[in-house]
Design goal:
alpha/beta; 6 helices; binds adenosine-5'-triphosphate; binds magnesium ion
Length: 175
């Protein structure tokens, strides 16, 4: 296994479960001064062809900016109209042209049977972009992430964001 020197000076809280999932192939830390920086990074990511079938996990405490980032990303991908948070529904689906985007929030997910009942296995097996908030709440069910974002609040509008690529696709997203 590769060494993970970033853990030695890791300033963010990283869930132990996520470390068991898959090795981190590449990582980077961003400093967002405000929401405009969040939107700018979302716009950059939206331009990456590798995003089409990627699974991106969003980690960080309540109010860190996970949904806000996803909204900017969806806008940058061309989603129009109101973008609802999947807080109560677990999944909010979106379509842009032939691109299917599934936005998940597993915060209230506590029954693994829900995974089958809600057809989430099929959603993950199908092509398309998957964006998961609170993935640690569905850790036993979720397929591995390509890219993980760990958001930490550093002020009213400042955020420290650790990016971790966990697959070749994830590495392509960081290029
Ligand atoms: N730099 C920033 N990046 C993202 N959001 C920011 C930033 N600065 C301020 N905010 C604000 O922080 C709030 C983040 O709320 P949001 O619902 O996105 O958090 P969340 O991480 O999805 O929380 P939850 O765990 O409850 O789903 C929003 O009101 C957003 O406008
Ligand atoms: Mg949210």
């Amino acid at each position: 296994m590769r060494p993970r020197p970033q853990l030695l000076d890791e300033p963010l809280h990283v869930e132990p479960m996520t470390l068991l999932h898959a090795p981190i192939l590449e990582s980077r830390t961003l400093h967002w001064r405000n929401e405009a920086d969040c939107a700018a990074f979302a716009a950059l990511l939206a331009r990456q062809p590798a995003l089409r079938d990627a699974h991106v996990e969003l980690h960080g405490p309540l109010g860190a900016g996970k949904t806000t980032f996803v909204r900017h990303l969806l806008r940058a991908l061309g989603v129009t109209g109101r973008i609802k948070s999947p807080t109560y529904t677990v999944l909010e689906p979106h379509h842009v042209g032939d691109l299917a985007i599934s936005h998940f929030d597993f915060y209230r997910f506590d029954d693994p049977r829900e995974w089958e009942d809600a057809g989430l296995r099929e959603v993950f097996a199908a092509p398309g972009l998957k964006l998961s908030e609170w993935p640690q709440k569905a850790a036993g069910q979720l397929p591995p992430a390509d890219l993980r974002l760990h958001l930490a609040v550093r002020g009213d509008t400042a955020r420290e964001v650790r990016l971790e690529a966990c697959s070749e696709r994830g590495e392509a997203l960081l290029r």
